[in-house]
Amino acid sequence: MSEALQYQKQKELFGHPVGLYILFFTEMWERFSYYGMRAILVLYLVAEASSGNPGLGWTNGDALSLYGTYTMLVYVASIPGGWIADKFLGQKQSVLIGGILLVLGHGILSVEEMWAFYTGLGLIIAGVGMLKPNISTMVGGLYKAGDIRRDKGFTIFYIGINVGAFLSSLIVGYVGEVYGWHYGFGLAAIGMLLGLIQYMAGQKHLKYVGNNTNNSQNEEEKAAMKRPLNKIEKDRMIVLFISFILVIVFWGAFEQAGGLMNIYASEKTNRMLMGWEVPASWFQSLNALFIIILGTSVAAYWAHRKLKGKISTSLFKMCLGLIIMGTGFFFMTGAAAQYNADGSSAMYWLVAAYLFHTVGELCLSPVALSYITKLAPLKYASLMMGVYFAMTGFGNKVAGLLGESASDLGEYTVFTGIAIFCVVFGFLVMLVRKKLEKLTHGAEDNEREINDDNEPYELADPDFNKGN
């Protein structure tokens, strides 16, 4: 089947392929399980073994060390997961296998034994590695090259991620803290099972995406899989790897949410609200809630800028996202200063920090996912998505190391240092943005909005990228 006919055959809902919503709900439940477990993992590790809801009684430093290593491995596993999909299985089958591994991992984690704890973490690492890069690559495959809806599609997909994260922080976090940590882990397993069932039921809407390209009947795809990379592809790979440095810095700061900021909310924040104490894990839901509220608005803003001929390239968005997110840590500086003065800090500092972190994330993360599907060569499509998530994993490890340093340096110094570094680094990359964008060889120059007749709208100024 020709590529044009393939895209014409895709049914649409709200202006996007129906397959997007199948992947939306699959990823929603996967993130429900992962973020639900993440919301209580550190709290479970540091909870006293003799308490009413016994944990492992680890020190904060040991807990943050394991948290950083675990979250790093979760994303680093995306490299072999992407490679397996590119070479052997295709993305669709890899996502299915990943979902099965995740159901098993979260289920075993609910068993109150140390062997089950480490076995469960291992299966989750393998499951996320198989599912995460491949489901994101499938989203990009739903759109033709040059379709401006791709960025919007990734934002819709990203909202699905955060619907799951929002619900899990509230539900799994509450069940884990109030009824028992292992009940929370078990609830995460049920969520992933629902996602797996939904994915299998929606296969008819994913017929033309995520298949093993080594078995493709398309002659162009066959040739692209066999030939060496040309100069344009190599230049684009260089830009991708440089953009991954932004990713490491961003997530190294952002992932303080599950570690140091999580402990800060638990131990140093006044969480009383009208006589009721807000569970510490609930603050993890703020980021997801803000994404659900702001996601489509931010995507529409960038699409409007592009159609008006204003700077809206992916690298510009990513640099700005890092700067905005870094600025959010100045609110945590304020929280630490208030704690040092009064012995407690107000909740509004955390709320403001999460708001800025969310706007920064919306400018960087879904855009980076879309950017990879624009620049990565076909033969390395899933592998490069895997490398992106591996960089996210390294960022998580950096986050753990920074969190551990708080015991020596203090939260005030750590939060302020993170803020300054992110803002300065973002501006430095912004200075070389134009040179880097030349190496993309116009990958984003020909994007068009698709109208109701499946024809492209012209951009307000088709040559605007030349001046960026």
From TrEMBL:
Its main location: membrane. Residues 452-461 have a biased composition (Acidic residues). Residues 444-468 are annotated as: Disordered. It is a multi-pass membrane protein. InterPro entries: Dipep/tripep_permease, MFS_dom, MFS_trans_sf, MFS_Transporters, POT_fam, PTR2_symporter_CS. PROSITE patterns: MFS, PTR2_2. GO terms for biological process: oligopeptide transport. The keyword Transcription regulation does not apply. Pfam families: PTR2 (PF00854). GO terms for cellular component: plasma membrane. The chain crosses the membrane at residues 67-86, 93-109, 115-135, 156-175, 181-201, 237-254, 282-303, 315-335, 347-369, 381-400, 412-432. GO terms for molecular function: peptide transmembrane transporter activity. It is found in: Cell membrane; Membrane. Residues 19-437 form the Major facilitator superfamily (MFS) profile domain. Keywords: Cell membrane, Membrane, Peptide transport, Protein transport, Transmembrane, Transmembrane helix, Transport. Belongs to the major facilitator superfamily. Proton-dependent oligopeptide transporter (POT/PTR) (TC 2.A.17) family. NCBIfam families: yjdL_sub1_fam. This is Peptide MFS transporter. The lineage of its organism: Bacteria, Pseudomonadati, Bacteroidota, Flavobacteriia, Flavobacteriales.
